Amino acid sequence: MNQVYIRQATKADLPDLEWDGEYTHFRRLYADTYTLVQQEKAIMWIAQFNGKGLIGQCFVSLAGIRHELADGSTRAYIYGFRVQPQYRNQGVGTLMMHTIETDLKKRGFQQATLNVGQNNPDARRFYERLLYTVIGSDPGWWSYIDDKGKRRDVHEPAWRMIKSLE
Asked: What is the pLDDT of residues 1-43, one digit of tens each?
C-alpha cells in the first residue's frame, strides 16, 4: 500500500479514467464532472499506483439537484467508485474512502451518502464495513450522453446508504 497514493484528479487525468477503453462511453460524463469540479460542486479522486498508473477512481458531488444526496453544506454524495479488479481486497478502496471522508469532514460536511447496486452484495458489505447504513432504496434510473453523442438510459436499482462523518 505504500506505493498507492490518493489524489484529486486533474484535467490531464480524464483520458486515464476510461481504463484503456473500458469506460470510453463515459467520456462526456467525466468531462461534465470535471466542469463541476471547476465550479467547486464536485471532487474527482483517483488512486494511483507507482509504475502502474491509475487503479481506482471515485467522484463526490458536493452540491447537486437532488438535495437528499448532496445539499452543498452538510451532505455529500459519493459515486462512480471503482477499483481495478486486480487491486481489489488489498486496501485500495478503504484508503480511498478514508481519504474522501477526511476531506469531507475538513470541508464541514456531516454526512456522506451513496447508492450501491442491489445486485452487488460485495460492494454493500464493503460499505457496511466502513459503517455506512442502508436507509432505503433508489429505483436507479439515470442517463448520460455517451462518447458518440447518444443518450443512454440506465436502470440500476440501488440501496441508499449513509454515514455520519461526525
From this structure: 679 999 999 999 999 999 999 999 999 999 999 999 999 999 9
For domain 4-164, give the CATH number.
Answer: 3.40.630.30
Q: Cα-atom radius of gyration of the chain, to the nearest Å?
A: 15
Q: How far apart are CA 166 and CA 153, in angstroms?
A: 36
Q: Is the pLDDT of residue 60 over 80?
A: yes
Q: Which three cell numbers stand for residue 69?
A: 444526496
Write the pLDDT tens digit of every residue in 89-102: 999 999 999 999 99
| Range 163-166, long-range pairs (CB < 8 A, 24+ positions) | 163/101, 163/111, 163/112, 163/130, 163/131, 163/132, 163/133, 164/110, 164/111, 165/101, 165/104, 165/105, 165/109, 165/110, 165/111, 165/112, 166/105, 166/110
pTM of the model: 0.96
Instruction: Find out whether 36 and 42 touch, Cβ atoms under 8 Å.
Output: yes
| CA pair distance 61, 64, nearest whole angstrom | 6
Q: How far apart are CA 160 and CA 166, in angstroms?
A: 19
Q: Number of H helices and number of E strands within the chain?
A: 3, 9
The domain ranges of the chain are 4-164
Q: How far apart are the first and last CA of the chain?
A: 27
